[in-house]
Amino acid sequence: MIHLARKNIQNLKPYSSARHEFKGTAKVYLDANENPFNNGMNRYPDPMQWKVKKRLAEIKKVQPENIFLGNGSDEPIDLLMRIFCEPGIDNIITLPPTYGMYQVSADINNVAIKKVNLTNDYQLDVDAILAAVDAHSKILFICSPNNPTGNSVDRNDIETLIQSFKGIVVVDEAYIDFSSEESCIEFIETYENVVILQTFSKAWGMANIRLGKAFSNTQIIDLLNKVKPPYNISELTQKAALLAFKHRDKVRESVATILRERSRLEDNFQRYDFIEEVYPTDANFIMAKVEDPNLVYDFLVSKGIIVRNRSTVTLCEGCLRFTVGQPKENDELIAALKEWGT
Ligand SMILES: *Cc1c(COP(=O)(O)O)cnc(C)c1O
Fold first, then answer.
1. pTM of the model
2. What spacing in Å lies between the alpha carbon of 140 and ligand 1's midpoint?
3. Which fold, 249-341?
């Protein structure tokens, strides 16, 4: 896949940090111009985050070398664009309605976007996607479960596209831990053009520490490492992740609660005539089509409840997106909807 990367990236000699050049342990570190007085954070962090990657590799059944960690998933999204897309020449393919960051990142990098809408039931229009591909199409972004619709997209369709598309296929699995479907992570062993994105921001409950994960073959991971800022993940974040690995039971418990609450909200949503459609979801949110979405949105705001107004998004006309909250918060949402509906 290296041949797909921009020439300047292929030829790039990456910055070599002090912690990168000397990898052993020593008695006295006088190499990085740090303040020598120990306050628990005076030293630069591990630039490759090996402790976190080793533990994560065990959990995900991959090798540590197949993992890239970024400042949120948004960092690998941006880096992939900068690695593979020549500004003003190459393009990416996105599949609306979907996560907004692919477009923003492309716009920032002056990379053109080809948009191929999802089908009416929010699945991949495989033929239309392949028809949109041209010689400069470098990355295809697939989001599954998809944001803002919530559904998973068909795994066979994803595999077909990986096999047929000559560029990089990014499968964004930010919500995979809420899904009844399997992750596509095993595709990284079979195909050389796949990157799987996951994150600590949703099911892991750590949006605050900004830690995103990319899984791929070592060639693509090496390119990401070459281009990233040397110390992109702070030691505080690495420590928080290592601590989270010790409390996986808590994560599982909260996911189970969120899924139970999601069903309860879905059941409740069905009761009101002003809620015209509740879309199937595999994520920690529910998209629903409502009558007068702006009025419902404003009413909820007046009750102190903020949801996401997606009513002007292509194929989501009239829709609001409800994140599943704590049981008490969901009670409040249900009470407010009841008040509006009667
Ligand atoms: C929330 C979300 C992310 C996560 O972004 P982070 O930068 O890791 O917080 C990625 N992709 C999608 C589709 C999301 O909804």
1. 0.97
2. 17
3. Aspartate Aminotransferase, domain 1 (3.90.1150)
